[in-house]
């Protein structure tokens, strides 16, 4: 799909409604703008939302079972 849009005096462009609907772009959504200097083109895409990143990073430490943590704490802090 190809659309035409106009740059305003403030350097803004309007993304056509059909594209906003397809990409689910709501008001206030952050976008990434990438310049391909050699081709003299820009590429615009939705910036990743923090919720999109959920689960993509592995924890640095091994996850310990909460029950085991409780047992370890009870052993360490038994009254004398």
Automatic annotation (TrEMBL):
Keywords annotated in UniProt: DNA-binding
TM stretches of this protein: none
GO molecular function terms listed in the Swiss-Prot or TrEMBL record: DNA binding
Domain SpoVT-AbrB: 2-49
Superkingdom assignment: Bacteria
NCBIfam families: lp_hng_hel_AbrB
Name of the featured protein: AbrB family transcriptional regulator
Protein species of origin: Candidatus Nealsonbacteria bacterium CG_4_10_14_0_2_um_filter_37_10
């Amino acid at each position: 799909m190809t659309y035409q849009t106009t740059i305003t005096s403030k350097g803004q462009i309007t993304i056509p409604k059909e594209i906003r609907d397809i990409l689910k772009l709501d008001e206030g959504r952050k976008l990434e703008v990438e310049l391909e200097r050699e081709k003299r083109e820009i590429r615009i895409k939705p910036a990743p939302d923090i919720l999109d990143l959920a689960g993509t990073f592995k924890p640095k430490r091994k996850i310990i079972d909460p029950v085991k943590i409780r047992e370890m704490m009870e052993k360490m802090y038994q009254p004398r």
